[in-house]
UniProtKB/TrEMBL annotation:
The keyword Membrane applies. This is Na+/H+ antiporter NhaC. The keyword Phosphoprotein does not apply. Its main location: membrane. The chain crosses the membrane at residues 6-21, 28-48, 68-94, 106-129, 196-214, 264-283, 295-313, 325-350, 370-392, 404-425, 455-475. Keywords: Cell membrane, Membrane, Transmembrane, Transmembrane helix. Residues 158-474 form the Na+/H+ antiporter NhaC-like C-terminal domain. InterPro entries: Na/H_Antiport_NhaC-like_C (IPR018461). It is a multi-pass membrane protein. Pfam families: Na_H_antiporter. It is found in: Cell membrane. GO terms for cellular component: plasma membrane.
Length: 476
């Protein structure tokens, strides 16, 4: 059944309520309910029951369940690393011993470099960058909104630009289907690699982060947030709700423990190293064919286990203390997990309503080939904003974009780059995006404050990318 214009009601309800009420969970639930109301033909009690059933049903998706468990375990890992004195030891090393981090610019650059270097998986990139840099950015009165922006605007873009990860596997998969179906010829890997120079938004986003760190020329809501933090020392807005409980994210070292940077570095190295190992094993020898969700799942379990062995064997804490700290961290992640569950659920409801297909139908067959990449970029951005998922957008828009490019005679590799860039841009702007939620979690920022401060930057970057797609479509 086609729902037409009604298919965009759930995302519109969720997004508007989130922006106006600042209650993300309530907004997502009401968005889910409105979608179920449409799916059940306006039957209130049937829609209420369906809402509950949809929440339960997401756990049938293995990758979603793994992502949620991953979030819980990362919370435990963050807390136990902090309690071991690892974070404090790393801060002391950078600020006192080596004196590498001397100001807010240096603290933000640390998060930026981590975001560029760890291109294995966007969630890991954000979480590691935020966890490591947050104590330093707090020390130099950097707003949590600015840290969240750095984490968010480096994670997904760099994962798309260096596709030796789950992102690459997913993108090659959706491109490969079009090759198998005879829509286009060639190799999925070759087409993806050739599209990298045309992922304009991703490239601009990464360069923009460096520009704002170096120049400190912030504007809009971000400027107000930075001014508040600099003048009043309030890294969080008064009344703001950090995505992770402060008692977990700022866990002091266990009494009597000597701060040691290796207590943080070693578990994180295990976390990062296990990701390509997981991709290699799940891809049966091919990193690009591996399962991203499974690899992330294995990586965090291995890192948590290694940390326990390291701390208990090194007599930093007893086994009971280690377990207690892990439980404390898991407990702090419960609000984040609830939001992720809600975000995934509304994504499924939107899929049932065929929101993406309806939006794509608005322009299919109605545009000139030279404008194809720009139109595809805009459509992917709007779709990702409305659905809250870049990967979901890739799954819907890549086939549509490739088929539109072939039908209109638009440049294929530019169109593929436009789909990827549009998906990431819309995801950066959306308050119901799971990756935006994770970036808020990584920086312990108020989620809506993160969305409000990042949105103007993402829109400006998107405008520049749109202009480049218009020019590229005409010139190439």
């Amino acid at each position: 059944m086609e729902y037409g214009i009604l298919s965009i009601v759930p995302p519109v309800v969720a997004i508007l309520l989130a922006l106006f009420t600042k209650q993300v969970f309530l907004s997502l639930i009401l968005g889910i309910f409105s979608g179920c109301l449409i799916l059940t033909g306006g039957q209130f009690f049937a829609a209420l029951n369906m809402t509950l059933e949809e929440v339960v049903a997401i756990f049938s998706e293995a990758w979603i369940t793994k992502t949620i468990i991953f979030s819980f375990l990362v919370g435990g890992l963050i807390t136990v690393i902090s309690a071991s004195g690892g974070v404090q030891g790393f801060i002391n090393y950078l600020t006192k011993k080596k004196k590498l981090i001397k100001n807010k610019r240096g603290a933000l650059f640390l998060a930026y470099v981590i975001g560029l270097v760890i291109f294995i998986e966007s969630s890991i990139t954000s979480l590691v960058a935020g966890t490591v840099a947050r104590p330093l950015t707090d020390k130099y009165n950097v707003s949590r909104e600015k840290l969240a922006y750095v984490c968010d605007s480096t994670s997904a873009p760099v994962c798309a630009l260096i596709p030796l990860n789950g992102w690459g596997a997913m993108l090659m998969g959706v491109i490969g289907v079009q090759i198998t179906n005879g829509v286009v010829n060639g190799s999925a890997a070759n087409l993806l690699i050739r599209s990298i120079p045309f992922q304009f938004y991703s490239i601009i986003a990464i360069l923009a982060v460096a520009y704002y760190i170096i120049t400190e020329n912030d504007w809009g809501p971000m400027k107000k947030a930075e001014k508040r933090a600099a003048e009043r020392g309030l890294v969080l807005r008064e009344g703001a709700t950090p995505m992770v409980a402060e008692e977990a994210t700022a866990t002091p070292p266990k009494e009597g423990v000597k701060p040691n940077k290796w207590n943080m570095i070693l578990p994180l190295l295990v976390l990062i190293a296990m990701m390509p190992v997981g991709l290699y094993l799940t891809g049966e020898g091919n990193l690009l064919q591996g399962s991203g969700s499974t690899s992330v799942f294995w990586a965090v379990i291995t890192a948590v286990s290694f940390a326990g062995f390291l701390y208990v064997w090194g007599k930093i804490m007893t086994l009971k203390e280690y377990i207690d700290y892990v439980y404390q961290g898991i407990g702090a992640i419960v609000p984040v997990a609830i939001l992720l569950i809600s975000a995934f659920t509304i994504g499924n409801v939107i899929s049932d309503l065929q929101t993406g297909e309806f939006m794509a139908s608005l322009v299919a067959g109605r545009v000139n080939g030279s404008f194809g990449p720009a139109i595809v970029f805009l459509l992917a951005a709007v779709m990702a904003f409305a659905t809250g998922t870049s990967w979901g957008t890739f799954g819907i828009m890549m086939p549509i974009g490739i088929q539109m490019a072939v039908a209109m005679g638009a440049p294929l590799t530019i169109t593929i780059g436009a789909v990827i860039s549009g998906g990431i841009m819309g995801d950066h702007c959306s308050p119901i995006s799971d990756t935006t939620i994770i970036s808020s979690m990584a920086s312990a920022s108020d989620h809506i404050d993160h969305v409000n401060t990042q949105l103007p930057y993402a829109l400006l970057n998107g405008l520049m990318a749109l202009i480049l797609y218009l020019l590229a479509g005409i010139i190439v």
